[in-house]
Write a structure and sequence with these properties.
With 95 residues, the chain is an all-alpha fold. Helix content is 68%, strand content 0%.
Length: 95
């Protein structure tokens, strides 16, 4: 069973709502991680704005674009998360 019904995935209204909610979803995830420092994330990237040409017409209407955008944001977040984890482990290592 898909996360969203197929009639919603390609629906213009659903895509517009998804695009408008993207910054809110990312902000919620950042709050869960405690990310508040500008050195930890890029605000434009987290908001999904100013990333690539054509985003202003592409993201609100095409679901695949939002998938690529969120994946890029997640990969960056994972890189920072792993760096943070490494630092915790390194600092806890004796000697």
């Amino acid at each position: 069973m898909p996360f969203l019904p197929n009639n919603c995935t390609f629906n213009a209204t659903c895509n517009e709502i998804g695009w408008e909610m993207l910054p809110e979803v990312n902000a919620y995830a950042n709050d869960l991680m405690g990310k508040t420092s500008d050195s930890f994330y890029n605000k434009n990237l987290q908001n999904g704005t100013g990333i690539y040409p054509g985003e202003e017409w592409c993201n609100p209407t095409i679901p695949h674009c939002k998938w690529h955008l969120e994946t890029g944001i997640a990969l960056t977040d994972f890189a920072f998360l792993m760096d943070w984890c490494y630092q915790i482990i390194y600092d806890a290592k004796p000697g």
